[in-house]
Write a structure and sequence with these properties.
It is a single chain. The protein has 983 residues and is of the alpha/beta class. Among the domains are: 2-73 and 200-315, no CATH class; 76-175, no CATH class; 375-551, no CATH class; 563-641. Helix content is 23%, strand content 21%. The strands form 9 sheets. The chain has an 8-stranded parallel sheet with strand order 19-21-23-25-27-30-33-36, with no helix packed on it. Strands 20-22-24-26-28-31-34-37 form an 8-stranded parallel sheet, with no helix packed on it. A 7-stranded parallel sheet has the order 29-32-35-38-39-40-41, with no helix packed on it. A hairpin with a 7-residue loop joins strand 12 (229-233) and strand 13. The two termini are 36 Å apart.
C-alpha cells in the first residue's frame, strides 16, 4: 500500500479480524503548535516530542470507545529552582486532572516517608509512578518492593486523590500517558480466548474500551467538538502556564481499492476525532482521527493507496473527485515530479504556505534542498520566464563584444555592418511586445512550443500555471531556444567571411609582392602603418568564433585578494614623491625666486601633502583589507563549487614554464601554501613532507608522481588528472577533488574528511587504510576501484556508476546508495553499520562474511545471483528486493526482513534466521536445509518445491502459504499450523 500525505501528517495503520471479517484500521495525526497560533508542525516533531512514550505505543490505531487525551509530560519547577515537590495541572475541555510530584523519598523505620530530595524537573512516566514487578497495573513502577539495599522507595508521582499513607498501601499509578496493553485493567478488557478460537481473530466478547490508551479519568463523556480549550500548569521549562484552543481542522482519508474485473475505485474512509495528544514541554499537540474499512483479506491486498489530508472544519470540504485527482496526479509518471513536494491540494486553504516552516522546509521533509516550497515555485517561475531573455541577452552581449573588437582592429563598416544588423534583430526579438509572434517561421514555432510547455495560469495570466506544465516539453524547449539563437548568429558567418575576403582583395590591390604599399595616397587611412595580413587573419579567426560558445573559454575564476590595488598604491606613492620633488625644484629654481608670498601661501604645505598622502594610503589599504576579506569568503564559495564550472584558460600572467620554475623555487623554500599553481603539468616528480594546502590546482596534470606526507587541505583540484601516482600519508581535508580523472593511482593511509569527490572518475584506483568521511559523491564514477581496510562513512551515492567496485575489510557506516548502477560490486568481510540501498541495480554483488548493524535495501532493488553467505548481525532488510538464485548459506541474522522479496531458488542452508519475516515473499525452490527458523513468519509466501529438511520450524507462521512438492523431512514443525502434516 502506497501512502500519500502532507509532511505534517502522520499515518498509522493496523489490520485485524473480527467475526471473520477483515478490517483495515487507521489513525491520522495532525500535529500543531501550542499557544496563540495553531500552525502545523512536522511529523518528525511529533515523534521527537513523544519519544519517551513510543515504547508503550502512542496509539492503539482503533476507534476509541470513549474520546480521550494523553500527555507526554515533564514537571518543571519555577525558573529551574530546586524544590522538594510540586504539582501539575491539565485541563482539556471539560476534563481536569492534577498530579503531585515529589523528589526521591523512602519509607523510614517509623512508617513515615523521608523528606523529599530536591528536584527541578521530573518526567511523568510509569517508571516514576506507583507499581512494582508483580503489580499487574504497573510492573514498571516503584513503591511496593525494596531495592537491593532494603530501601522501599516511594513513587515520585502520585494522584492527590489516593496518596500513599503507609508502606503497605496500594494506589493506582499516576500518569498522564498511555497504559500498557498487557497490564490491568486493559488486559482484562480483551475478553476470554478459547482454545479453539482463531488466534488472528479478536475475541468475540472483547470490551472495546481495551483500545482506549489513556487512564479512565482522561476520557471524555461526550464526543470531541474540535473546539476544546486546553491549559497546562508547570509542564514547561519556561512557561508556568500554556493555554489555548485546539485548531479547527478535520482529517480525511481516501483509499484506492483494486477489485477483480472492475476498474480501480477511490473511496473515502470516514474519520472521527477521538484522541488528543500533547507534549507541553515541546509546545506541541496533535489531533488524532480514527477510521476503518473492510478489506478482502488479512493483508489488505485490495487496498493499493492511502491518501490522508486535512481541511478547515468550517469549510464545505473538497469532494471525492478532488482527492481522486490528487492520487492520480502523484501516480502519473509525467506529473509525479511536480507533486513530489507539492502539498497545497491536501492541506487547508487557510494555511499560508509562505508562513509555514512545517510545509516549506524541504530539508526537514525529505532531504531535498530549499527552505520555502512556495518560494521555490516562484523561483522556478522566474527562471522559466527569464530563460529566453537571458539566452538572448547573452548572445547580444557576445555580439557587442565582438563588434567592439572588430572596430578596434579597424575592420571597416563592410565587415561590421552585417554583424550589427544581426544584433539589432536579436534586440528586437528580446524587446518584442507581449504576445508578439514575430514574422520568422522558426521564431513562431519556438514561441508556440514555449506556450505549450509553459501555459499561463487562468487566475493570474502573468504567472505560469505550474500544475499545467508539460514536463516532457519542458525538457526540450531549452535546447530549442539555444538552437534558434545560435542558428541566427551563425547565419552571419558566411557573409562576414565574404566581407573579409573582399577587404583582403581590396588591400592586395595596394600592396606589391614584397608587402609594400604601391600608393600611399591610395591606401585607406586605417591601413597605414599596419600589418594588414596579420590583422585580417586575426579578424578571420574571430569570425570563426562567432556563435560558437564551445570555443569561448575564459580564464579560471580568481577571487580578489587585495593585491589588485598594489599598483594603485604604488602610483599614489610615486605621484607623491614626484609632487614633492617638483615642488622643491620649483622653489629652488630661478622661477621660484619670482613667486611672491601670496602665491606661496596658496600652495599646500609639506605637512598638508603628507596628511593627504597618508589619508590616501590608509584608504587604499583599508580597501585592500576589505577586498582580501571578501576574497576569502569568495574563495570559500569557489572551493565548494569549482568542480561545477567549465574548463578555463590559465589565470596566470606569465608562461606556464616560468610558473613551473617559480613552483620549484617555492618548493625549495617551503612557500607553496596558499599559492596559485593551476594548469601546471608534472611528470615523474616526487614530493615529501610539503604543504600544498589552500592552493589553486585546477586542471593540473600529474603523471607517475610520488607524494609522501603531503598536505592538500582546502586545495582545489577541479578537473585535474592523476595517472599512475602514489599517495602515502597525505591529507585531503576539505579538498575539492571534484571532476578529477584518476587512473591507476594508489592512496595509502590518506585522510579525506569532508572532501568533494563529485563528478569525478576513479579507474583502476586503490585506497588502502584510508579514512573517507562526510564527502560529496554526486555523480561519482568508480571503475575497478578497491577500498581495502578503509573507514568510510557519511557518504551518499546518487545515481553513481560503480563497476567492479570493491570494499574489502572495511568499516562502513551511514552510507546511502540511491539509484546506483553497479556490476561486480563487492562489500565483503566488512563491518557494516546503517547502510541503505534504494532502487539500485546490483546483480551478482558480494556481501559475504560481513558483520551487519543495519543493512537496508528498500524500494526496487535488483540483487539476483548475489552472495550474502556467512554474514551475521542485526537490522538486515531486503524487503521487496529481487534476490533470485542468491546465496544466504551460513548466515546469522535475527529478526531479518525479507517481506515481499523475490527469493526463487535462494540458498539458505545451515543459517540462523530466528524470527525472520518472509511475509508475502516468493520462495519457490528455496533451500533451507539445516537452518533455524524459530518463530519466523512465512505467512502468505509461495514455497513450491522449497526444501525444509532438518530445519527448525518451531512456531513458524505458515498461514496462507502456498505449498507444493515442499519437503519437510526431519523438520521440527511443533506449534505450527502444519504440525500434523506429514511428507
Amino acid at each position: 500500500m502506497k501512502v500519500i500525505k502532507s509532511s505534517v501528517l502522520s499515518i498509522q495503520t493496523r489490520r485485524f479480524t473480527y467475526l471473520n471479517r477483515f478490517v483495515q484500521s487507521m489513525a491520522v495525526y495532525v500535529p500543531f503548535q501550542l499557544g496563540e497560533r495553531s500552525i502545523p508542525r512536522l511529523e518528525q516533531d511529533l515523534f521527537d516530542a513523544l519519544e519517551p512514550t513510543l515504547e508503550l505505543g502512542i496509539d492503539s490505531c482503533v476507534k476509541k470507545q470513549h474520546p480521550e487525551f494523553l500527555v507526554n509530560g515533564v514537571f518543571y519547577s519555577h525558573h529551574g529552582q530546586g524544590v522538594t515537590g510540586g504539582e501539575v495541572g491539565v485541563t482539556i475541555g471539560s476534563v481536569s486532572k492534577e498530579l503531585y510530584v515529589f523528589g526521591d523519598r523512602y519509607w523510614q523505620m517509623n512508617g513515615l516517608p523521608s523528606n523529599p530530595g530536591e528536584i527541578s524537573e521530573m518526567p511523568l512516566l510509569l517508571a516514576n509512578a506507583f507499581g512494582g514487578s508483580q503489580y499487574t497495573h504497573n510492573p514498571l513502577g516503584k513503591g511496593i518492593e525494596k531495592d537491593g539495599d532494603g530501601i522501599q522507595w516511594l513513587p515520585n508521582v502520585e494522584d492527590p486523590k489516593s496518596l500513599l499513607t503507609s508502606p503497605g498501601a496500594i494506589s493506582r499509578p499516576a500518569t498522564l500517558g498511555p497504559l500498557r496493553v498487557l497490564d490491568s485493567p486493559r488486559m482484562e478488557m480483551l475478553g476470554p480466548v478459547g482454545e479453539d478460537d482463531d488466534p488472528f481473530n479478536l475475541p468475540t466478547q472483547i470490551d472495546w474500551r481495551y483500545f482506549n490508551d489513556a487512564p479512565s479519568d482522561q476520557w471524555f463523556k461526550k464526543p470531541l467538538t474540535g473546539r476544546e480549550r486546553y491549559r497546562f500548569s508547570n509542564l514547561h521549562p519556561e512557561l508556568s502556564v500554556i493555554e489555548g484552543v485546539i485548531p479547527q481542522w478535520r482529517a480525511r482519508a481516501f483509499i484506492k481499492r483494486k477489485l477483480e474485473n472492475t476498474d480501480d475505485t477511490v473511496e473515502e474512509v470516514p474519520l472521527v476525532l477521538d484522541t488528543l495528544w500533547f507534549a507541553p514541554h515541546k509546545e506541541l499537540g496533535a489531533l488524532v482521527f480514527h477510521g476503518s474499512t473492510e478489506v478482502c483479506d488479512r493483508y489488505g491486498s485490495d487496498v493499493t493507496h492511502l491518501l490522508a489530508a486535512f481541511e478547515d472544519s468550517d469549510d464545505t470540504g473538497r469532494d471525492l473527485c478532488w482527492y481522486q485527482a490528487a492520487i492520480e496526479n502523484r501516480e502519473d509518471e509525467n506529473q509525479a515530479l511536480k507533486y513530489m513536494l507539492y502539498q497545497r491540494d491536501i492541506v487547508p486553504a487557510s494555511i499560508d504556505l509562505d508562513d509555514q516552516d512545517a510545509l516549506n522546509d524541504v530539508d526537514d521533509i525529505q532531504g531535498f534542498t530549499g527552505n520555502n516550497l512556495d518560494e521555490r515555485f516562484e523561483q522556478m517561475d522566474e527562471e522559466i520566464n527569464g530563460h529566453v531573455s537571458e539566452q538572448l541577452q547573452k548572445s547580444i552581449d557576445q555580439l557587442s563584444t565582438q563588434i567592439k573588437q572588430l572596430s578596434e582592429n579597424n575592420a571597416g563598416s563592410a565587415v561590421i555592418k552585417p554583424l550589427m544588423e544581426k544584433k539589432r534583430e536579436l534586440e528586437d526579438f528580446r524587446d518584442r511586445p507581449e504576445g508578439s509572434d514575430g514574422q520568422d517561421p522558426e521564431l513562431v514555432a519556438l514561441l508556440t512550443l514555449i506556450d505549450e510547455a509553459l501555459p499561463k495560469s487562468k487566475k493570474d495570466p502573468e504567472q505560469i500555471d505550474l500544475l499545467a506544465v508539460d514536463l516532457n516539453k519542458l525538457d526540450v524547449f531549452g535546447n530549442k531556444i539555444d538552437e534558434y539563437i545560435s542558428g541566427k548568429i551563425k547565419e552571419a558567418v558566411p557573409e562576414l567571411k565574404d566581407s573579409v575576403l573582399g577587404a583582403k582583395d581590396n588591400v592586395n590591390t595596394h600592396i606589391d609582392g614584397k608587402g609594400n604599399l604601391l600608393s600611399q595616397d591610395a591606401a585607406p587611412p586605417h591601413l597605414e602603418g599596419m600589418d594588414v595580413d596579420a590583422q585580417l587573419e586575426e579578424l578571420t579567426a574571430r569570425i570563426e568564433l562567432i556563435g560558437d560558445d564551445d570555443k569561448e573559454i575564459d580564464p579560471l575564476v580568481r577571487p580578489p585578494d587585495g593585491h589588485e590595488l598594489d599598483q594603485t598604491e604604488k602610483s599614489i606613492k610615486d605621484n607623491f614623491e614626484t609632487a614633492i620633488s617638483e615642488l622643491k625644484s620649483l622653489l629652488g629654481s630661478e622661477h621660484g625666486n619670482t613667486v611672491n608670498n601670496s602665491e606661496l601661501t596658496e600652495l599646500p604645505s609639506y605637512h598638508e601633502l603628507q596628511q593627504q598622502y597618508a589619508a590616501l594610503i590608509e584608504d587604499i589599504r583599508a580597501e585592500k583589507k576589505e577586498l582580501a576579506e571578501t576574497g576569502l569568503e569568495m574563495k570559500g564559495l569557489y572551493l565548494m563549487g569549482a568542480h561545477l564550472m567549465d574548463e578555463g584558460l590559465s589565470p596566470h600572467n606569465m608562461p606556464l614554464d616560468d610558473l613551473k620554475r617559480k613552483f620549484r623555487k617555492a618548493c625549495q623554500d617551503n612557500e607553496l601554501h596558499g599559492q596559485d599553481w593551476a594548469c601546471l603539468e608534472f611528470d615523474n616528480d616526487r614530493w615529501d613532507d610539503i604543504d600544498l594546502g589552500d592552493c589553486y590546482l585546477e586542471q593540473t596534470r600529474f603523471d607517475h608522481c610520488l607524494f609522501n606526507d603531503v598536505v592538500f587541505d582546502k586545495s582545489i583540484f577541479a578537473r585535474a588528472t592523476f595517472t599512475s601516482c602514489k599517495f602515502e600519508r597525505c591529507s585531503f581535508v576539505d579538498t575539492n577533488l571534484g571532476a578529477v580523472v584518476s587512473e591507476c593511482n594508489e592512496f595509502i593511509d590518506c585522510d579525506f574528511p569532508s572532501a568533494i569527490l563529485s563528478n569525478s572518475s576513479f579507474s583502476k584506483t586503490r585506497f588502502s587504510k584510508c579514512r573517507i568521511e562526510d564527502c560529496q559523491t554526486m555523480d561519482l564514477v568508480l571503475n575497478s576501484t578497491v577500498f581495502h581496510e578503509c573507514t568510510v562513512s557519511d557518504l551518499n551515492f546518487l545515481e553513481s556508476e560503480l563497476t567492479d567496485c570493491r570494499f574489502v575489510h572495511c568499516h562502513l557506516a551511514d552510507m546511502n546508495f540511491l539509484e546506483v548502477q553497479a556490476s561486480r560490486f563487492v562489500m565483503a568481510d566488512c563491518d557494516i553499520e546503517a547502510l541503505s540501498f534504494i532502487d539500485c541495480k546490483m546483480p551478482a554483488s558480494d556481501f559475504s562474511e560481513s558483520r551487519v548493524k543495519g543493512l537496508n535495501f528498500s524500494g526496487d532493488n535488483t540483487l539476483d545471483k548475489s552472495n550474502f553467505s556467512d554474514i551475521k548481525g542485526s537490522g538486515f532488510c531486503v524487503g521487496n528486493a529481487s534476490l533470485m538464485d542468491s546465496n544466504f548459506n551460513n548466515v546469522q541474522l535475527e529478526n531479518a526482513y525479507f517481506g515481499g522479496a523475490s527469493l526463487g531458488n535462494i540458498q539458505m542452508k545451515s543459517s540462523g534466521l530466528t524470527r525472520a519475516n518472509f511475509m508475502d515473499a516468493r520462495m519457490d525452490g528455496a533451500d533451507f536445509r539445516g537452518s533455524n527458523l524459530f518463530e519466523a513468519n512465512l505467512g502468505n509466501t509461495s514455497l513450491v518445491s522449497a526444501d525444509f529438511r532438518n530445519t527448525n520450524c518451531f512456531s513458524v507462521n505458515f498461514l496462507d502459504a502456498t505449498l507444493g512438492d515442499t519437503r519437510f523431512a526431519g523438520a521440527d514443525l511443533s506449534n505450527t499450523l502444519i504440525e500434523d502434516w506429514r511428507p
